[in-house]
TrEMBL record:
GO terms for cellular component: endoplasmic reticulum membrane. The lineage of its organism: Eukaryota, Fungi, Dikarya, Ascomycota, Pezizomycotina. It is an enzyme of class 3 (hydrolase). It is a multi-pass membrane protein. Residues 1-94, 1121-1146 are annotated as: Disordered. The chain crosses the membrane at residues 121-142, 782-801, 822-842, 881-907, 939-956, 1000-1020, 1065-1086. Residues 787-1103 form the GPI inositol-deacylase transmembrane domain. Its EC number is 3.1.-.-. The keyword Membrane applies. Residues 193-435 form the GPI inositol-deacylase PGAP1-like alpha/beta domain. This is GPI inositol-deacylase.
Length: 1146
């Protein structure tokens, strides 16, 4: 009897195919039957007659099935029919025994297990589960938690004037890039520069023409408004000269070197632009104005990153940039990490900005720079909007991030491209730029503190703590005389409610005494009205004054606000108040009426005032002045409130919100504004649904419908819900892989929900808040896109490791499908469970004091130093709550790998079948065919020449990514040839080589997306006739391992088994690749290319190990088909396999 294999390799031994002894099915069955006849006969001796009869019937049935079954590998070429040897017909024909039928059955079972198409129930269930989860995530991303779109279309009459004299004398990129000046037709058609320079930088695949909407609005706004305003002219307001750059729509997000090239070109463009203002023939500036020394930068998408990079370049001229405005720019981290130069450039630029503001530098080179980042919000599906955050780069004194849904009179999110043409936003942006310019200064802008204050005033809601109250810096400008006939003095704590205006027909002041100190913490004054608040000079309907009984400084000129005021100041018994107008502190809120649908509907906004009582402690009264002369519709509600009444905190964590949600009931007697604080809601990975159930008013019709504001502080994001009955809540707070904030302090205060309701309704409001599980699933797409490029490499590496482990043990290189099935049953669950615990440990260690102490001692840094790479590992989050994402991504990626395997199988087998049919159709007579199959010595050196040419091109012209794409094609051809060889020979060795080639092809295909972006950039450069090679992608070692292995496998050489301890190194190398893909694959995806390259080098060394000398390298590269052992070399493509005659057993 034949000795059975050990129990540890039982599955592998069962899969080992028997060597055929003939070309026909019957001949192979005879040999297998003879090998197994002895144990079968020994077994049948102990059977009863009835059992033997049943076995005989079963064997007969199996024989009939065997004769009708087709082989799992159908032939594509006819079976050879050599002439019979003498005496063959004289041999007796053996009769089939029962044992032979059993052997045939066992052989068929082994062939079915060997087939790469075989799919177990567990593999099928895993694939279906992964597809269902993936489709759920994609469906949620496309259809759930979608913000409404409210952008209005913009119109312009553009004209672009190119500067042909900005040539190679100024820049080495003159033949690749171009500089233009924008002019608006019918408004400003003078091609001479005359205003303040603004340079626009397009983003990834962006066009220089994208500046049209903003530049046109700037020209029209100055022509129609500022040109007629004498005060604006006196403050240094002049037209904006918009310059724009044509980068030929380069894919800058994929290539770090392209980013640096653009930054270098733009610095040279700034020098050229500033020189234009010194040339009298090119400039039409007013005499007496200083020549510009700096340029305002406006960047879209990656153009904003280029603007920050310019200040780091060697050719940057100091102080030529002091104001940078970016739109949907990913400042915090690169959108993808497939290019080493892009990741290193980001690290260098962000480190430079952080160190400049950390105080470590003797002089801050960015001290006069103002940086404002504007994000589009949830509608931006190109980059996650939290990547636009500046909290890890600049302090609040130098910049901030704001969402378009927060900007007054915009109040809508917008996608990645709409932010350039949205009519509401371009109006706000142009006004913000004009707020900070001053042509009277050489820098062309106001001082930095004034710039940041102006940007906050224009772009933020006005309710943020960082927004300074302009009223507090003013001097009293109004005298108010308290007369009984025209003044109503209210009692302490009384709420002012006006349901109509002008009832008295004269001007009337409603004076509200401010509560006495000490103030309760959180006490505030709030006022809401549907009227526009006026300044002293305006003839409107309403004003709000903050007054004190103390007289203004002596000699100070004030405006007397006459309300029964005696011009001779002889009014006896009257009290005069020194007042300041509060119009500069008004915040605009979207109108919320019973017919309102969206915040951006375009109706006249509400006016809202809010003061902390501690900030107005120097005043004694607040006067609300009605100036309407006749009765008119309108309403005003003003009151004082404290924190106990107006603020509610929901102390529930993620688990409680996920399981039961939160319900808050607002009482009938409540302030006009109530704030609901939920500190634990700050993650971008969760989406929530909100329901507001309000009871009808009991006494009066409500003056306005409930209005809700969703707000987080970092970055500044607000969303408004008018006439609210609920809605979708999603925030852009803490996000995976984001660096921590630059300054120490609390990470975030969580979500705040502010409700404005009519307090006179005397009705309750019930608010329900719960997690939207399906809506949250879609949030994974934008934050974890790179995971679906890294985790599949983890799975493929583990499957390939299992294949080599079985091969080194049993000599059988199982198929990828069978190895995947075994990994799903054994190693994959264990590894992903271990990674889950590792992710939990990593997330908790970031908050551990002992860990910080150990890291500070090992790295030599201070414990207080901020580690900006703390979120680079695994899931990129310091919240252990999201541990479940590891098994979730594991299931999805295993399913993706299974589907990818079958896709490659279908494609390669289809191509192999087509090639076989073409070859049969074109095949000549047998003599000519055999003559064509003889080795051609002229082809032996062709591979050497091909490799040499490829290596030379990689070193000189083409990037190694192009060579890698070629190698993927060569490996696919090798795989197709292996299919054809296996189908013709039907030998186990040919199947082993095909399984080996197929698995290597799958691994290379998963690395291909990492190299594809740079390859696309290189091809794009060729289309614009830019032939300068990349300086960072010509490292021969980066692709040498792939070249050696692929060329070796193209000779149909099977890798030899390694039975020594060296096989553990192969195992460890593949496991290290899998571990890196899991831990750092998202942050540093490009390194996986280098790790697989090292693995290919090692496999090539194993190929050479059979000869015992590196001298065999020449034989492998010259096309020699000699293999490890003569018995393991598969036949070459197109060769015929002579039948092997088996010897009879004695």
């Amino acid at each position: 009897m034949r000795r059975r294999s050990s129990e540890g390799s039982e599955d592998e031994a069962r899969d080992r195919p028997h060597v055929s002894t003939g070309s026909s099915k019957k001949g192979r069955a005879e040999v297998m039957a003879r090998e197994s006849a002895q144990p079968v006969r020994a077994t049948t001796r102990h059977m009863s007659a009835q059992q033997q009869q049943q076995q005989r019937k079963a064997a007969t049935k199996e024989a009939s099935v065997l004769l009708t079954e087709k082989a799992p590998w159908p032939r594509t070429t006819p079976i050879p029919n050599p002439p019979l040897e003498p005496g063959t017909l004289d041999e007796p024909v053996p009769s089939k025994s029962r044992a032979e039928y059993v052997a045939d059955h066992l052989r068929k079972h082994a062939e079915r297990r060997r087939s790469p198409w075989r799919c177990s129930f567990l593999t099928l269930a895993t694939s279906i589960g992964a597809i269902v989860i993936l489709l759920t995530v994609v469906h949620s991303f496309l259809n759930r938690q979608q913000d409404p779109k409210g952008c209005a279309m913009s119109y312009m009459r553009p004209r672009f004037d190119r500067f042909p004299d900005f040539d190679t004398e100024h820049t080495r990129f003159a033949s690749k890039y171009s500089l233009y000046l924008y002019r608006e037709g019918g408004v400003d058609e003078d091609i001479r520069v005359k205003g303040i320079p603004v340079l626009f930088i397009p983003g990834n695949a962006g066009s220089y023409k994208q500046v049209r909407p903003i530049a046109a609005e700037a020209a029209v706004y100055f022509h129609d408004v500022l040109r007629q305003d004498g005060d604006a002219q006196g403050e240094g307001k002049r037209p904006l000269d918009f310059f724009t750059v044509d980068f030929n729509e380069e894919l800058i997000a994929f290539h770090g070197q392209t980013l640096l090239d653009q930054a270098e070109y733009l610095n040279e463009a700034i020098a050229y632009i500033l020189a234009l203002y010194h040339n009298p023939q090119r400039s039409a500036r007013e005499p007496g104005l200083p020549d510009p020394k700096s340029v305002i930068m406006l960047g879209h998408s990656m153009g904003g990153v280029v603007a920050r990079t310019m200040l780091r370049m060697p050719n940057y001229q100091e102080n030529t940039i002091n104001t940078i405005l970016t739109l949907s720019a990913p400042h915090a981290r690169p959108p993808i990490s497939f290019d080493a130069a892009m990741v290193s450039t980001y690290n260098d630029i962000n480190t430079y900005w952080r160190r400049s503001f950390s105080g470590s530098a003797a002089k801050n080179p960015l001290d006069d720079v103002t940086l404002v980042s504007v994000a589009g919000g949830g509608l931006d599906t190109m980059i996650p909007s939290e990547y636009t955050s500046l909290t890890s780069l600049v302090p609040d004194t130098h910049g901030f991030t704001v969402f378009t849904s927060s900007i007054p009179n915009v109040w809508t999110g917008m996608d990645h491209l709409a932010i350039m043409w949205c009519d509401q936003f371009r109006k706000a942006l142009v006004k913000a730029i004009y707020d900070v310019i001053d042509v009277r200064r050489p820098s062309q802008t106001r001082p930095r503190p004034e710039r940041i204050r102006a940007f906050r005033k224009r772009l933020l809601t006005g309710m943020e703590p960082v927004v300074e109250k302009g009223l507090l810096e003013q001097e009293p400008t109004t005298y108010l005389t308290l007369e009984h006939s025209s003044t109503g003095i209210m009692s302490h704590g009384e709420r002012l409610v006006l349901r109509s205006l002008g009832d008295t027909g004269t001007t009337k002041a409603h004076v509200m005494p401010i509560p006495a100190q000490p103030f309760v913490e959180g006490s505030k004054f709030t006022l809401l009205t549907d009227q526009k608040l006026d300044s002293e000079e305006d003839d409107g309907t309403m004003s709000v004054l903050l007054c004190s009984v103390f007289p203004p400084p002596a000699g100070f000129s004030v405006l007397s606000y006459a309300i029964n005021l005696d011009p001779s100041n002889s009014a006896g018994g009257s009290t005069r108040l020194a007042c300041k107008n509060a119009v500069s502190d008004v915040s605009l809120l979207p109108a919320s009426n019973k017919d309102s649908v969206n915040a951006f509907d375009g109706t006249h906004p509400f006016s809202y005032l809010q003061y902390e009582l501690s900030s107005i402690a120097d005043y004694q009264f607040i006067a609300v002045v009605e100036k309407a002369k006749e009765r008119m519709p309108g309403w005003v509600i003003a009151e004082f409130s404290n924190a106990a009444e107006s603020s509610i905190k929901v102390s529930k964590g993620h688990h409680q919100l996920l399981l039961s949600g939160a319900t808050v009931r607002l009482p009938a007697k409540r302030p006009m504004m109530t704030e609901l604080k939920i500190p634990e809601v700050h993650s971008t990975l969760f989406a929530y649904s909100l329901e507001v159930d309000r009871k009808p008013c009991r006494k009066h019709e409500e003056s306005f419908a409930p209005l809700m504001r969703q707000y987080i502080a970092e970055p500044y994001e607000s969303k408004y819900f008018v006439n609210t009955k609920g809605g979708n809540i999603n925030v852009h707070g803490l996000s995976p892989y984001m660096p921590p904030r630059l300054s120490a302090g609390p990470v975030t205060e969580g979500l705040s929900l502010q409700f404005w309701t009519d307090p006179t309704c005397n009705s309750t409001v019930e608010i329900s808040f719960k997690v939207d599980v399906l809506g949250s699933a879609g949030k994974l797409v934008m934050r974890y896109r790179t995971v679906f490029a890294a985790f599949p490499i983890l799975v493929v590496a583990l499957v390939l490791r299992k294949q080599f482990k079985v091969y080194d043990t049993t000599g059988v290189f199982i198929s990828f499908t069978q190895s995947m099935d075994q990994c799903i049953r054994t190693s994959l669950p264990a590894i992903f469970i271990a990674l889950t615990f590792f992710a939990i440990a990593v997330s908790k260690s970031s908050h551990n004091l002992w860990t910080r102490h150990w890291l500070s001692k090992s790295t030599g840094t201070s414990e207080q130093a901020i580690d900006f790479t703390v979120n680079d590992l695994m899931l990129g989050t310091s919240d252990p709550f999201f541990w479940f994402l590891v098994p979730l991504f594991a299931i999805i990626c295993v399913g993706i790998c299974i589907v990818m395997n079958y896709v490659v199988l279908v494609l390669t087998h289809t191509i192999a079948l087509g090639v076989a049919k073409v070859l049969r159709w074109a095949q000549g007579p047998p003599e000519e065919s055999r003559r064509a199959q003889l080795p051609n010595t002229g082809l032996l050196n062709r591979r050497n020449l091909t490799i040499a040419v490829l290596l030379l091109l990689v070193v000189t012209i083409i990037p190694y990514q192009f060579a890698y794409a070629v190698l993927c094609l060569v490996q696919a051809v090798t795989c197709i040839r292996a299919i054809k060889t296996a189908q013709e020979s039907q030998t186990p060795q040919s199947y082993h080589f095909y399984n080996y080639a197929h698995s290597v092809l799958l691994l290379m295909l998963w690395i291909l997306p990492i190299n594809a972006p740079v390859l696309v950039v290189w091809i794009h450069n060729l289309t614009v006739h830019w032939l300068t090679p990349f300086s960072t992608h010509h490292n021969l070692l980066s692709v040498l391992g792939y070249i050696l292995l692929v060329e070796t496998m193209s000779t149909n050489n099977m890798i030899p088994r390694v039975t020594s301890r060296v096989r553990y190194f192969t195992n460890t190398l593949m496991f290290a690749l899998a571990l890196y893909a899991a831990v750092y694959g998202v942050t540093y995806a490009y390194r996986m290319h280098y790790l697989v390259n090292a693995l290919c080098c090692w496999l090539f060394v194993i190929h050479l190990s059979n000869s015992g000398s590196l001298a065999s390298l020449a034989r492998h590269l010259s096309g020699s088909s000699s293999s490890v052992t003569p018995s393991t070399a598969p036949p070459a493509l197109g060769s015929t396999v002579p039948p092997v005659r088996g010897k009879k057993r004695p």
